[in-house]
Amino acid sequence: MRTKNRQTGSTLAAVLFALAILVLVAHVVIIFASRQYAAPAPITANAVDIDRQYRLTLWVIGILFVASQLALALAVFLFRDRGQRARFLPGNVAIEIVGATAAIIIFLGLGFMGRKAWAAVRYAGPPTGSVQIEVTEMQFQFVFRYPGPDGQFGRIDPALISAATGNPLGIDPNSPEGRDDIVTGTLAVPVNRPIELLIRSQDVIHSFFVRELRLQQDAVPGMVIPIHFTPDKIGNYAIVCTQLCGLGHSKMHAVLQVMSESDYENFLKQQAAAQ
Amino acid sequence: MSARGAARLFSTDHKVIGLQYLFLSLIAVTTGMILSLLMRYHLAWPAGRLPFITGGIMTPEQYLALVTMHGTIMVFFVLTTAPQNAFGTYFLPLQIGAREMAFPVLNMLGFWLTSAAFIVLLAAFFVQGGAPISGWTAYPPLSGLGDITGPGEGMGQTLWIVSILIFCVASVISSINFIATTIEMRASGMKMMRMPLTVWAWFITSILILLSFSVLLAAGVLLLLDRSFGTSFFVPAGLVVTGQLQSHSGGSPLLWQHLFWFFGHPEVYIAILPGMGVTSQLLSNFSRKPVFGYPAMVVTLSAIGVLGFSVWGHHMFVSGMSPYSGFTFSVLTMSIAVPSAAKTFNWIGTLWGGKIQFRTPMLFALGFVSIFITGGLSGIFLAQPAVDNMLHATYFVVAHLHLVMGVAAIFGVFAATYYWFPKMFGRVMNETLGKLHFWLTFAGAYAIFVPMHFLGIAGGIRRYADDSGAAYLVGLQPLHAFMTVAAFCTAAVQLIFFWNFFASMKSGAPATPNPWDATTLEWAVPSPPPPDNFGSTKITVYRGPYEYSVPGAPADFIPQNLPPTTTGDGGFPA
Predict the structure, then answer these.
(1) Is the dihedral of CA A15, A17, A21, A26 positive or negative?
(2) Same domain membership, residue A219 and residue A112
(3) Any chain B CB within 8 A of the CB of A39?
(4) Which alpha helices (DSSP H) does chain A contain, by range?
(5) Which range marks the domain in which residue B393 is found?
(6) Which residues contact A105 (CB under 8 A, 6 or more apart)?
């Protein structure tokens, strides 16, 4: 009688555990299949490549997730205590080697396949003729600088930084390249032209993240970090800071405006007049 | 305090010190959990009034202070302290047949330094400006310039660094003790390849602690020098903070990140390896089967330990580090998935063909495997720099790290607590309450952290005090509310555990020396063990740690210290 009770308890626990795993697996599969939570549509060719790698990873990891959770549930259910004697299986070197080899191929293969989407924008520099814009981050805002008609950024001196007198970047007034620089609070860029951003910070570490670009880069004081992209859809996109930078971190946002070439020319003219 | 009480408080008995570590981590985990509940409430209902919060409604700096303190308390004083120092200190000497740790006084010193570090950390809440807001990673220059960068960055941040420095010293001392004890104090016949996998895990973890906390110790000293003595290890020239030009020159903010993550990534394995050891032991014990592939388990533990030191750069893909290094770190990170997958395979292999007994410790070990699979696999997304472009700093990372490093490690701690409770206190915990605790915690942990992945994929950004700043974030509020409700329910369930723990300590049913029919040496002594463990008995080990259901043996388990002649046929390989 005592044995029977223990077996019943054992079956109940095994069934509960297997059910819990099934609910988990079904829930995760359904949510991902429904694409209820997803990043917004990409606006660069590189972002499309990153999405492809993400989906490939989702498939591979999804299959491994479902298979290993179900294997666990199955083992728990099949080998619950029913009064049987356990089998003495101390291991199997051949299976271990086959399994490890398979894991090496899957994981390293996936890693190497993801190289292209990374290398395309991080190893290679921007195409010639890129529009260069400087992004300076500070607690708790983004400031953008366009080089103006001369195509050169003016010299910066931290000692001259003064938001109160309208020089938040500390542009040296004696620097001839700086006289036509355009400083804005919005990042306007022309559509279908390669853009190179030079990312800087004045104080602590910040970050630059636009989901539609699938591009994220920290802004590190003391460094100028270049990133590049070619947006192919006109629209407004949120720029957010993703590196903890102080109490205003969650409010540190700006807007990326991708516009037609003519709108872009107008934007520059208007901003130049307002300097 | 009576002299006897003082003698017990300042005991050099590893069992007393192990329990002291356990109670310290119980206090720490309760504190860390309350902080997380305050954060979760604020994320779901930002305008709600809260207890413990000055002014009632949480400000961004109060939120970030909670982020910092929750992370620091949980990583250092729970995930490092409980799996390694509490259970390792108590059970490593017993499992290798030793009467003591190699350095009993250092052992005691380690505990008291850890306690001091905890008190110094908590003090940061009560100083001018409050606790630091720079997160548990404390990236300079935010953490390197004093209170000009934000509230809590003055005295609060200094106390944080001092606390971490004390903790580092304690950890290094204790790891040396573990390593020396494992190498020097094993009983006769306890060859390395006869050690329980728990001992292997604590041993490898000790090596990781020795190498990684030493680096954090050095980095912390440099950060303190930058803040208080005007050096510039991590702070570059020309910084202008709130309109004031800073006098530092020539430092590198990325240097801190390299040093921090050289510690920080091995720390993940410091938290999880002991849980892996416990899980391996328990799956074997309660399946009545040997661990499948014991040598492979030793090799994979070691491989994870070695590879764990070469993957830190995956925290820095978008930090400004060379993109070529990024790809190298990516490949190395992917390769650490191989031993992790092998371990999972062997755990399922251990269950396969077994006779599984669903006692509470076993349920937590099974839960560990499921959560380790879920939390580990999401790491494969983050290990690829291209994909990390969109997931870095989102809640996807928070979900990943909480499952694989937090929840899995805590399941390991729960499994260890239920398993060894009879040995530690001589009484048995209530099985019904234990099982209830397991089912509700298992469901609750997944209910909190599975939706968090979705939140991250949808672009929810971590360490945001509120999501009102960007339009797309506002739509994610229902997910936050769901996770908050799940977190409060799961936290409430832990009261069952605390009740069961303390009530059973006082009045649980008396435990026999070996209630689980287990094979390892801690079950060869009375429950609880006498102060000198094995006393004058000479312990000799004759066999491997997991001889369950050996064909031809009279019982379905053979203790490690049972001589071959007494097993019935005498023919078992020693």
Answers:
(1) positive
(2) no
(3) yes
(4) 2-34, 45-78, 93-113, 115-122, 261-274
(5) 10-232+250-565
(6) none
Q: Is B355 in Cβ contact with A24 (below 8 Å)?
A: no
This complex has an ipTM of: 0.96
Residue B545 per-residue DSSP state = S
Query: Touching check for A71 and chain B: CB below 8 Å?
Result: yes
Q: Check if the beta carbon of residue B67 is closer than 8 Å to that of residue A246.
A: no
Q: What distances in angstroms separate CA B228 from CA A186, B69, B238, B247, B259, one per listed residue?
A: 38, 22, 19, 13, 20
Work out how many domains chain B is built from and give that number: 1
CATH code for the domain in which residue B451 is found: 1.20.210.10
A151: left (phi over 0), alpha (psi -120 to 50) or beta: left
Place of tokens 């755990």: B347
Strand, helix or coil at A236?
Answer: strand
CB pairs under 8 A between A and B: 332
Domains contained in chain A, number: 2
Cβ-based neighbours of A218, under 8 Å, separated by 6 or more: A199, A205, A206, A207, A208, A225, A243, B318, B319, B320
Contacts of A209 in chain B (CB under 8 A): 393, 461
pLDDT over threshold 60, residue B330: yes
Nearest to B271 by CA among B456, B112, B71, B491: B71
User: Tell me, what amino acid is at B20?
Assistant: Q
Number of helices and strands in chain A (H, E): 5, 10
Dump pLDDT digits (tens) for A154-211. Answer: 999 999 999 888 899 999 999 999 999 999 999 999 999 999 999 999 999 999 999 9
Is the pTM of the predicted complex or chain greater than 0.90?
Answer: yes
Taking the C-alpha atoms of residue B289 and residue B300, their distance in angstroms, rounded to an integer, is: 20
Q: How does DSSP classify residue B383?
A: T
